[in-house]
């Protein structure tokens, strides 16, 4: 073989080696890039799990505090209710008026003259504003033209 043939074969092998090398290099870069993305995704997932765990822990603390506050409130209401019941049983109910005022009212009621119910004349006479017969809306004092219009 001649030198030109060897040289041509060498150029063809060099070009094919170049393309094969670049192809493998691109695949390697893609593979490394995919590995890097996978590691990043795993880190993100782990961070998300940690955030969820922290959130659940803080929620648990808040629910515990809420339960404590509720039990304290319930205990306070029970104590207040018990205190009110004890106070009510200790003290008798106080009258609306003081003792002196009650005595004065009773004395004034005794000194007041009683109404006499024997006077029947007040009940037999009609009231002062009583009108005998038909009057107002119930009277039939319409004119004859109005009576004719009504069927």
Contiguous uncertain segments of 5+ residues: none
Q: Which structural class fits the helix and strand makeup?
A: mainly alpha
Secondary-structure element order, as H and E? Answer: HHHH
Helix content: over 70%
How is the secondary structure organized here?
Layout: H1 3-90, H2 99-111, H3 121-124, H4 144-149
Short summary of the structure?
With 151 residues, the protein is mainly alpha-helical. 74% of the residues lie in helices and 0% in strands. The longest helix has 88 residues.
Verbal overview:
This protein is mainly α and 151 residues long. Helix content is 74%, strand content 0%. It contains 4 helices and no strands.
List keywords for this structure.
151 residues; 4 helices; single chain; elongated; 74% helix; mainly alpha
């Amino acid at each position: 073989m001649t030198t030109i043939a060897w040289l041509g074969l060498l150029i063809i092998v060099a070009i094919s080696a170049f393309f094969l090398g670049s192809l493998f290099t691109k695949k390697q870069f893609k593979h490394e890039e995919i590995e890097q993305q996978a590691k990043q995704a795993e880190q993100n997932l782990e961070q998300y799990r940690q955030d969820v765990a922290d959130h659940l822990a803080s929620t648990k603390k808040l629910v515990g505090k809420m339960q404590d506050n509720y039990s304290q409130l319930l205990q306070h209401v029970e104590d207040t209710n018990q205190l009110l019941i004890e106070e009510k049983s200790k003290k008798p109910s106080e009258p609306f008026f003081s003792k002196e005022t009650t005595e004065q009212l009773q004395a004034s009621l005794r000194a007041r003259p009683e109404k006499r119910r024997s006077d029947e004349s007040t009940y037999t006479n009609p009231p002062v504003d009583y009108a005998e017969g038909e009057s107002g809306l119930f009277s039939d004092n319409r004119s004859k033209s109005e009576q004719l219009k009504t069927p």
